[in-house]
Structures are given as C-alpha cells and as structure tokens.
Amino acid sequence: MQRPASLSNTAPRFGAAVRGSFALERDYTQLNHGSYGATPVAVLAAQRIWQDKLELEPSRFMRRDYKPAMRAAIAALAPRFKVDTDGLALVENATQAVNAVLRELDLPAGSGILITDQTYGAVKNAARHLSARNGWELNSVTLPFPVNSKEEILSAYKRALDPAPALVILDHITSPTALVLPLKEMAAAARDAGALVLVDGAHAPGMLDLDLSELPCDWYTGNLHKWMFTPKGCGVLWTAEARRKSTHPLAISHWYQEGYGEEFEYVGTRDASSQLCVPSALAFIDAFGIDAIRGYNKALVNGAADMLAARWETERGAGPELTGHMAMVRLPDGFGSTREDAEALRDRLIDEFRVQIPINPLTGTLWCRLSAQIYNELTDYERLAEAIEALAR
Ligand SMILES: Cc1ncc(COP(=O)(O)O)c(C=O)c1O
C-alpha cells in the first residue's frame, strides 16, 4: 500500500521541522550557530533538573552525586573522541583550557611560540600575555585566504616551522575564515620540528569525526556548547599521557595532585549543570544520528555558499574539501572594508532584517560567515541574500 505523502520518507526531517526543538526566538534568521551554538529545549530541561537536584540538598549532591555524575558524562563522551577517559577532562570552554595549558608551560625565555594570523582573538591574547610574562618569542604565520587546497596551507605552514618553535597553537577550524585546516599533517610537521602541539578545536566536536588517539598533539581542546548541543559552559581538554602530570586546571583546588581527571573534576563550588548535560546532548544527537546531522549541515552550507557566491557574483573562501558546517562568502562591493564597516552592516542586518550573521573584514573587503545547523534551511540564506541586495540598492 502506498504511504500518504505526509508520512513518506521524503518528509522534511530537518530545517523548519526541528526549529521548535530549540529555544531560539522564532522571528529571526539565525545563521550564526558557530559563535555560541544553540541548545535544544530537551537539553535545557535536563539542565534544570541537575540544578534542582543540587539546590534541593546541596551537601548531599556535592558529597555523593557530583563525582559519579561528572564521571558518567566523561564516560559517555570518551568513545565519541576514540580515547579512554583518563586523558579527557571537562572544562568550561576552550578559552579556559588554552589558558590552563599555557600557564603551566615550563619553557625557557627566548622559546618560540607559533600561532597563525587566523588564531582566535582570545587565544592570541592568552599567548601574548604569557609570552610577555615568560620572555617567549611569539610569532605568527599568515595562512592563505581565500584558499584552493590544503597543500597551499601546508606549504605556508611548513615554511614557518624553521626555525623550530618550542610550541605551536593550531586551530582545527579557524574562526575568522571558517577553514577546516589539514590538522593531522600540520601537527605532524610541527612535531617533526620538535614542537609541542596545542590544538584549539573549539568548533570541531560535533562537526568533525574526531579520533584524538590518532592526532599527533599534546593537548586538544574543543567546545561542546557550539556543535554538540550542550548548554553554554561545556568543553573538553584532552591531554596526552606524558603531559597529564604537569597539566592543571586554571583553578587549583581540593584534588590537587590526585590525578589529571580528579583535578579538573573539581575546581571550586560552581554550577556544573552544563557539563552534567553531556549524556542528554548525546541523546539528542543520537535521536537523529550524527551522520545524518553532519551530512545535512555540510550539504546545506555548501549549497548556500554556492548559491550566494553565484547570486552576488563573488566567491567562496574555500571549496568543500576545506569546509565543515561553516563557510565564507565574499559580499558584493560597496559595504566598506573595515571592522567598523563590518559591525555596522551586521547591526543593520539584525535590526532591519532580523538576520544574525557574522561579517568579517578580510582581503580588503567584507565577507560573511555562514553557519548551518539542523534548524536551518536554504530559505534562511535566501533571506540573507535579499537583505544584502536590498541594502546594496
Ligand atoms: C577557534 C576558536 N577558539 C576558541 C574559541 C573560544 O570559545 P569559548 O568562548 O567558548 O572559550 C572560539 C569561539 O568562537 C573559536 O572560534
């Protein structure tokens, strides 16, 4: 018997059909999942339950329930990153993880620290601060943008490894340019040059299929509140075995020197409910299937970027090979070129058209950074196109 069309397998599963599963305001176009993520209503409900459990009997919760709940979160997470639980810690966010690693580095004055021109601003500042304090020499390599192939990135990066730095900070996915960097090859080249490798993978969990056991790095941090659907204030710091004893959380607390996992587990009294929600966020992902989510987001962002670049007769920042769930598209000329121009345009897009999207000044002009998450659909990007075209007129 033929199924009615409304029940057929071609019925939309994502896009507007799941927008109601998120706490997002209804009457605007959210094209900036990348900056802060968006939490499903079901996960927020689970968070409220953790908060209630804590407040009902705080001492009981902290003495008896806290530790097993944190461990359950890490145990649920570890197989998703193909590591065991020993080297995996939950942190508030990638910024704190990077600061924690840098603070403990015991490198002599004069040591080279290598970042890139696309290193996230907060991470750059942490590197600047600790370099100034410790007498390290901070250097930055310019990565190609727009870019056609990972070979272009690799050859620029390899040139910067001579003279060899003591530490490199590598993005997995760059923030201002939305590039999925060839991390494995870049990290391996840095290791071969003798450098320690700290990876800022803020955007990677949920977006990329991560196998941390395979990556040649010493530390890897990522946010779960961006693409893995936890509430804000949840990230991970994975540390290679050789570095675990000398890696500590930003706040040294009660379980100092009792082991890597223990130290990170308790960093003072706080609301850890966002971290305790990891199993709920994973359940949300599993309800759809991670491959279905990734497949939808990747196809959508590539389709949207192609559509906009063709409509505006401009270009993309990179092709699908270097694209995850975010993509850069150059705006038509006439909107200026400075950070102030970018912010002014961004304000007009949200105030006049209810379109939320980051605008970045690059290559002497302005670019927009598209994000695609399961609640988006192509009409969202068409709304952006119409808004830009109306403002250009
Ligand atoms: C590459 C990169 N690193 C670090 C961060 C910082 O994330 P958080 O503010 O959650 O620490 C971001 C946030 O957008 C990012 O894009």
From TrEMBL:
Listed Gene3D superfamilies: Aspartate Aminotransferase, domain 1, Type I PLP-dependent aspartate aminotransferase-like (Major domain)
Any idea where the Aminotransferase class V domain is? Answer: 86-314
The Swiss-Prot or TrEMBL record annotates one GO molecular function as: transaminase activity
PANTHER family assigned to the protein according to its UniProt record, in alphabetical order: HERCYNYLCYSTEINE SULFOXIDE LYASE (PTHR43092:SF2), L-CYSTEINE DESULFHYDRASE (PTHR43092)
The source's superkingdom equals Bacteria
Question: Which organism does this sequence originate in?
Answer: Nisaea acidiphila
SUPFAM superfamilies named among the record's database cross-references: PLP-dependent transferases
Membrane spanning stretches: none
Q: Write down what this protein is called.
A: Aminotransferase class V-fold PLP-dependent enzyme
- Keywords associated with the record: Aminotransferase, Pyridoxal phosphate, Transferase
